[in-house]
Amino acid sequence: MEVHAEDTPRHSFWFWLLLTGGAFLLLVALLWIAAWHLLGGSGVKTGSFPPFGSNNIAVVDLKGVILSPDKIDRQLEEYANDDSVKAIILHIDSPGGGAAASQEIYHEVLRIRTKHKKRVVASIESVGASGAYYIASATDRIYANQASIVGSIGVIMEWINYGDLLKWAKLKNITIKAGALKDAGSPTRDVTPQERAYFQGLTDNMHAQFIQDVAAGRGLPISAIQNLATGRVWTGQQALPLHLIDQTDGFRVALLDTARAVGISGEPNVVRPSEPKNGLLDIILKGDSKLGFPNPGELQSLLEKSPAFYYLWE
User: Fold this and answer.
1) pLDDT tens-digit profile of 246-266?
2) Which end of the chain has fewer CB atoms < 10 Å from its terminal CB, N or C?
3) Least confident among 107-111, 186-190, 210-214, 224-228
4) In the 3-class helix/strand/coil scheme, how is the chain assigned residue by residue?
5) Is residue 277 among the annotated active site residues?
6) Set 94, 102, 123, 130: catalytic member
7) For the whole model, what pTM was predicted?
8) CATH top-level class for 52-312?
């Protein structure tokens, strides 16, 4: 039986076009996935390559003592500019930290809400106190577990005085100054009454700023926050009737509620900034407290600790 050329099935131009196009799209998808894993593992934020679609909720972790606003501000700004991210959840487990650092993150949250019109909520895990609560108060809604610790609206200033140690070691501190309060808070001697009044005035002013900002963030009268601004903490269960939080639920509920609030039906995609992985050299040079390696900079700071103001629950 003879088979003639005209009897052989021929595919149309469109068939080959679709086949080539499909192969190209598959290649692009594979390259995209490879880039996602490669860059994520090297420390690039996963928010730079969000999952397909636009039903994304970004989660920014605020954990430990707040010493600098840079990292959190950078992550918040990235997600604020990402149109695929519909809302941001601040996942908080922190006792607070530096007064100025906490205040700066507070204002960044407000800026994102007003300028970008993007929903930001706080979900407090174990602790969201002092500076961490300050930041949470700027969000659209605060979730906390019933046993979470929240509040501590207050300011603390402290430093180490090693004047007696210098005397014991027969060492003398020599200071030349211009201005009566230039060396106020010197760790080598006792505080004078004038210096104590000076520092108290600064502390009271920062306390007033704390109260005013929390009242504005929570939409409450300043007098209502003043009555609570004793530095005391409450459990989430106690904080709810005081209007310090909005709901006693955990992170999962906060995530699903936030998704519904921004029009996402079903399970939202969660994006988080990735963290760079420390190598052995980083552990040795920078220290890693989890592995028992002290950070040389932290040890030095204990000896050189100068007066500073903190929104910190201790």
Assistant:
1) 999 999 999 999 999 999 988
2) N
3) 186-190
4) CCCCHHHCCCCCHHHHHHHHHHHHHHHHHHHHHHHHHHHHHCCCCHHHCCCCCCCEEEEEEEECCECCCHHHHHHHHHHHCCCCEEEEEEEEEECEEEHHHHHHHHHHHHHHHHHCCCEEEEEEEEEEECHHHHHHCCCCEEEECCCCEEECCCCEEECCCCHHHHHHCCCCCCCCCCCCCCCCCCCCCCCCHHHHHHHHHHHHHHHHHHHHHHHHHHCCCHHHHHCCCCCCEEEHHHHCCCCCCCEECCHHHHHHHHHHHCCCCCCCEEECCCCCCCCHHHHHHHCEHHHCECCHHHHHHHHCCCCEEEEECC
5) no
6) 130
7) 0.76
8) alpha beta
